Amino acid sequence: MKPRISMITLGVDDLEKSIAFYEKGLGLPRMESPPSVAFFTLNGTWLGLFGRDSLAEDANVPCEKANFNSFALAHNLGSEAEVDALFAEALGAGATAVKPPQKVFWGGYSGYFKDLDGHLWEIAYNPFMWVGPEDTE
């Protein structure tokens, strides 16, 4: 795995209020986004806002706050094969599979695992654009 976090996705209760908070309240630059999600640039890394229920559904985890901490870290790669390889590497290192890599509703390919402390990581390939900081090697 390369030393990069492509995106931090926060599961929020009220998407419109959260967009206003981050865009108008904190002044983060908002990117063009579909209505069900908002993206902001953070000098190389992206911040994503997604409804809490929708993020839990996408990760295939229960939405109860006791079981779901409402955020996911994302690591984007250049192909489906790279996603599969890194997912297998993470499981080999002790991660727990949550959602095996698969084609997803937005047209990409992704899977989720939990690290040793239960934090969600999405490993993804976006065929439409690169997300996050560029690889330097």
Characteristics of this structure?
23% helix; 7-stranded mixed sheet; alpha/beta; 7 strands; single chain; 137 residues
Mean of all residue-level pLDDT scores: 88
For the record, give the distance between the C-alpha atoms at the N and C termini, rounded to a whole number. 13 Å
Helix % is: 10-25%
Number of strands: 7
Tell me the overall shape. Answer: globular
How many helices?
3
Strand content: 25-35%
SSE arrangement:
Blueprint: E1 7-12, H1 15-25, E2 37-42, E3 45-51, H2 52-59, E4 71-77, H3 80-92, E5 96-103, E6 109-114, E7 120-125
Parallel strand pairs: 1-3, 4-7
Antiparallel strand pairs: 1-4, 2-3, 5-6, 6-7
Provide an overview of this structure.
- The chain has 137 residues and is of the alpha/beta class.
- 23% of the residues lie in helices and 34% in strands.
- It contains three helices and seven strands, in the order βαββαβαβββ.
- It has helices spanning 15-25, 52-59, 80-92; strands at 7-12, 37-42, 45-51, 71-77, 96-103, 109-114, 120-125.
- Strands 2-3-1-4-7-6-5 form a seven-stranded mixed β-sheet.
- The radius of gyration is 15 Å and the shape is globular.
- The two termini are 13 Å apart.
- The relative contact order is 0.20.
- The model has no long low-confidence stretch (mean pLDDT 88).
